[in-house]
Amino acid sequence: MKLYIMNGSPMVRKVQAVINYLNLKVEIIEKNLMNGELKEEGYLALNPNAKVPVLVDGDFVLWESNSIIQYLTDKYDGEELFPKDLNKRYEIVKWQFWEINSFNSNVGKLIWETLLKGLFGLGEADESIVENALEQIKTVAPTLENQLEGRKFIVGEKLTLADFSVAAFSAMIQSESSRFPLNDYPNIKAWLKRLDENEAWSKTKPPFVL
Predict the structure, then answer these.
(1) Does a structural domain hold residue 68?
(2) CA gyration radius for the chain?
(3) Which site from 42, 88, 122, 179 is most exposed, i.e. has the minimal number of CB atoms within 10 Å?
(4) Alpha-carbon gap, residue 54 to 63, rounded angstroms
(5) Is residue 136 assigned to a domain?
(6) Among candidate residues 51, 76, 101, the one where a domain is terminated
């Protein structure tokens, strides 16, 4: 089994965390965004979207991080992370859709402008985009903050795929340079601290952010 990654990618991080949690042996193949490796013909044959991660399991090729982690937990006995019980399972899936459409879509814009553009030498942050992202975050972050009230993790007392999915950008939003107003959300802040205490997750922390 092979996993194509780009170091530091939040979407890759959630997949690597699940691989660690399940103790899977996976060949890691690093791709370089700045060298155009994601747009090479061979890679586009695997993922026409020119993004990471991509999982190759024999003849089966899968992209989109949430689909990859669902596949891994189903195939490799990860029911603790992704229960077979339909109510519990689709509660997790609900939060995976939410993170893509509401939370991380806006957090990603903020992180790109405040952290990653400079890291890749692509210029200064566009303050209008930063301001818009922060305004959008104010509308969606309370949903997560309220969900975590009285809970250790997003769907209850146990870690699930919902946590790995929503926390994809966690190392980055914990950086003051990101400008994410983490102190305004004590439940989110405490949840991220609990996640950082999980070895499978902490081992995937990108070293160049904090």
Answers:
(1) yes
(2) 17
(3) 42
(4) 5
(5) yes
(6) 76
Does residue 166 lie within any of the structural domains?
A: yes
Which of helix, strand or coil describes residue 59? coil
Domain span at residue 61 reads: 2-76
Residue 113 near residue 192 (C-beta atoms within 8 A): no
- Euclidean distance between CA atoms 49 and 31, whole angstroms: 14
Whether residue 96 sits in one domain with residue 144: yes
List all residues 6 or more positions away from 196 whose beta carbon is below 8 Å from its beta carbon. 170, 202, 205
Are the C-beta atoms of 172 and 178 separated by less than 8 Å?
yes
Residue 103: Cβ within 10 Å count:
22
Report the domain count for the chain.
2
Q: Per-residue pLDDT tens for 180-203?
A: 999 999 999 999 999 999 999 999
Q: Rounded to two decimals, what is the model's pTM?
A: 0.94
Condensed to tens digits (0 to 9), the pLDDT of residues 7-42 reads 889 999 999 999 999 999 999 999 998 899 999 999
The mean of the pLDDT values for the chain is: 95
208 belongs to a structural domain? no
